């Protein structure tokens, strides 16, 4: 990527769009691989340890944000709240995984929600987070909206779908490691249209009456993403 207009979208001298996409793809792969290994009866601490071991086997460089695995009622928690290490996944339950991993000097960040058992409302919740993410991404592609407009739109769409959007979760920058030196702030507070390959769109929703929610995040890019598969 060449020079960008806003300091919030600055990148380092080693930044590569191809490496950024590779980091994204490897992190999405890791989320799916870890999810396949999680079973009812496992607690959040065991799931986090499993995730770390899987990432090490995959050859990660490092973790750039803490591994988050949430089961059942803790799927309502926000990013900065601790996991509940003794919280056990039930036979009919919902969980999500959120990973921030460095691959080849670039930050991957991906998250998705999964259901064990046959609870159709939980299945609908997990699917709704993915669908809402795609709807908001389509808005970005078609209209070139500012980050703040995207989250206003997301809240309205979530309500229309029968879910509650957690507006404490507003997305963020990624880049060549470490992106934090740019002090970019949240996507939901960004006053310009986010550039491709630099921002994570995060969607976290809650069931309107039951004690659980769902989470989905991915890199905003103009190429085809897993959400469209």
Automatic annotation (TrEMBL):
It holds the Pfam family Peptidase_M24. CDD domains: APP_MetAP. InterPro entries: Creatinase/aminopeptidase-like (IPR036005), Pept_M24 (IPR000994), Peptidase_M24B (IPR050659). Residues 19-174 form the Peptidase M24 domain. SUPFAM superfamilies: Creatinase/aminopeptidase (SSF55920). It comes from the Bacteria. PANTHER family: AMINOPEPTIDASE, XAA-PRO AMINOPEPTIDASE P-RELATED. This is M24 family metallopeptidase. It comes from Paludibacterium denitrificans.
């Amino acid at each position: 990527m060449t020079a960008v207009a806003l300091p919030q979208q600055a990148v380092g001298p080693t930044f590569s769009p191809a490496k950024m996409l590779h980091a994204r793809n490897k992190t999405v792969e890791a989320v799916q691989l870890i999810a396949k290994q999680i079973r009812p009866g496992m607690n959040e601490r065991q799931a986090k340890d499993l995730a770390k071991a899987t990432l090490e086997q995959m050859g990660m460089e490092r973790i750039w944000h803490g591994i988050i695995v949430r089961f059942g009622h803790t799927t309502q928690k926000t990013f900065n709240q601790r996991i509940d290490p003794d919280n056990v996944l039930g036979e009919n339950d919902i969980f999500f995984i959120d990973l921030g991993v460095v691959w080849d000097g670039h930050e991957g960040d991906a998250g998705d929600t999964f259901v064990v058992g046959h609870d159709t409302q939980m299945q609908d919740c997990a699917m709704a987070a993915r669908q809402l993410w795609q709807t908001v991404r389509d808005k970005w592609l078609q209209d070139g909206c500012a980050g703040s407009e995207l989250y206003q739109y997301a809240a309205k769409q979530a309500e229309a779908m029968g879910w509650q959007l957690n507006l404490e979760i507003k997305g963020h920058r990624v880049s060549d490691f470490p992106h934090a030196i740019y002090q970019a702030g949240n996507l939901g507070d960004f006053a310009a249209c986010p550039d491709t390959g630099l921002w994570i769109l995060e969607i976290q929703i809650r069931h309107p009456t039951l004690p659980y929610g769902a989470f989905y995040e991915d890199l905003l890019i103009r190429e085809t993403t897993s959400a469209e598969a």
